[in-house]
Hints:
The complex is a heterodimer. By secondary structure, chain A is mostly helical.
Amino acid sequence: xxxxxxxxxxxxxxxxxxxxxxxxxxxxxxxxxxxxxxxxxxxxxxxxxxxxxxxxxxxxxxxxxxxxxxxxxxxxxxxxxxxxxxxxxxxxxxxxxxxxxxxxxxxxxxxxxxxxxxxxxxxxxxxxxxxxxxxxxxxxxxxxxxxxxxxxxxxxxxxxxxxxxxxxxxxxxxxxxxxxxxxxxxxxxx
Amino acid sequence: xxxxxxxxxxxxxxxxxxxxxxxxxxxxxxxxxxxxxxxxxxxxxxxxxxxxxxxxxxxxxxxxxxxxxxxxxxxxxxxxxxxxxxxxxxxxxxxxxxxxxxxxxxxxxxxxxxxxxxxxxxxxxxxxxxxxxxxxxxxxxxxxxxxxxxxxxxxxxxxxxxxxxxxxxxxxxxxxxxxxxxxxxxxxxxxxxxxxxxxxxxxxxxxxxxxxxxxxxxxxxxxxxxxxxxxxxxxxxxxxxxxxxxxxxxxxxxxxxxxxxxxxxxxxxxxxxxxxxxxxxxxxxxxxxxxxxxxxxxxxxxxxxxxxxxxxxxxxxxxxx
Lengths: 190, 321
């Protein structure tokens, strides 16, 4: 199942050389950016759903990567794993800040009815994407994280296990359960 | 539980097959619930939200501008790359110093442009003109060669080291020749001839100052096409080259380093003052004592003239058709 690779998606040609050069050359960083932007954006989008927020967090990820690329060391893992660790941290930081804010706002607004999104507010464009994201939104944070690391980042179960502290076999089990739950959510909405 | 672990193991195997593109077409012989999970996994693998991003290009430009404006880019790394990946520095430094402007036209892979900046640790300013085009202003003191070299009235083709150089009235253009590639610069007398030889759709100027007309064209080893318009105040030179994705090929250098060529980028070094302007609503660079550069529709354009003001250059550039 898992090989010694860290990710399954088609490799960026000369990735290691590009990463080394990116420490000294903007054009090399541009090539890395072009390759990884969709994967990072998709990862973030699965985690936070909101497109504007996904843009903000994706920007944070690449800005942190640009600053930190000087310290990237191959011995500590693939570049993809390093980059998605940054993405994971950025999303986790934001989710934590939202929980704090939500907690504060719930205390402030105690006694009010919790607002539910109105059907007419649901955007009809990109319906499939919206449905998928809505279904993903029903999963737990951990399941969303694993779905995003697997299907957007394209990481192996072994690498996901290293990032999350789970065992590789547990990653497989949780992913399987999460996809079945996702399937059930989507069926409900059909 | 054991059963679920077995199914999850099989599921992971199937998902990995989807991610590598080597998976089986369907999960025949498995329960419907399992097949539905694999079908959904297939959807997840192929779903791409990124076209919905509103920041992709703007963020790219911002990040690249941050990198070019930054000082002290790991000079030790550049020194090691100079040996391994770039062997034509004299060409480029000469061109950079004498011209103020250099089209790094032969550089068909992102890494190669690193070589242009070897030894240059500080950029005065950097402009990103598009996904594959940037201008970097270096301090004149960083130039290795005096810029007093005379500029010929008519273009002259030359060779420096393993690179090519075209000396013109507006400055010199140069680049290296990838190993194994033809280093010939082809010359034409008409636009149609140049178009027939070029690998992309050429554009020409719709407006020319009084007394100007196309005199000759050249095709450089990199695929860059130069149109020379002769007139009473000296040549106008329009250089154009496709940028972005290119046919992938492997280039092996004599020192054993193999580089995959799959992207064309243009990076211009100049020691002339450079400012950001807008041309047809898109970013462009105005390089004093030279002219304009910009990227549009998958190509980079460079328009140079003698003694131009920005307004004159803009009027001519806007007429490109």
